[in-house]
Description:
The protein is α+β, with helices and mostly antiparallel strands. The chain has one domain (10-131): Barwin-like endoglucanases (Beta Barrel), CATH 2.40.40.20. Helices cover 13% and strands 23% of the residues. The chain contains three helices and nine strands, in the order E-H-E-H-E-E-E-E-H-E-E-E. It has helices at residues 29-34, 44-50, 107-110, and strands at residues 10-15, 39-42, 57-58, 61-62, 71-75, 83-87, 115-116, 123-124, 129-131. The strands form two sheets. The chain has a seven-stranded mixed sheet with strand order 3-5-2-6-1-9-4. Strands 7-8 form a two-stranded antiparallel sheet. A hairpin with a 6-residue loop joins strand 7 and strand 8.
Amino acid sequence: AHEQPSAGYYRLLYGRAPMHTFGRTTNNPLLTELMKENEVWLHPTVAKLHGVRNGEYVVLVNQDGVRSARIRAKVTERIRQDSVYMVHGFGHSDKRMRRSLGKGADDNALITRVKIDPIMGGTGMRVNFVTI
């Protein structure tokens, strides 16, 4: 059985966007025009519960107390009520990345726990939970 989130917490899911490759392209001027920052997807029921409106900035806090940078909320029914989703590759703090500096939140910072598959040794990182 998979670990379930505590009350008020949601499974952190993350993925890619077609215009960006990891964090390497978020400083590219042409690609930044297409996607300037990542968003966190929230189900409408979850957004209402936390008083969050579409387009509003929020901060996520994981189960170990790690806080994200501010990230814009996208309220959508395209996410389950027990999970939140964000695109990987944002939330840079390197001052040389002038276009992407301080844009969005870093999913890696919120991934403080992993599970190791006992048979093949693969790591599972979708075992982290956040609250809003």
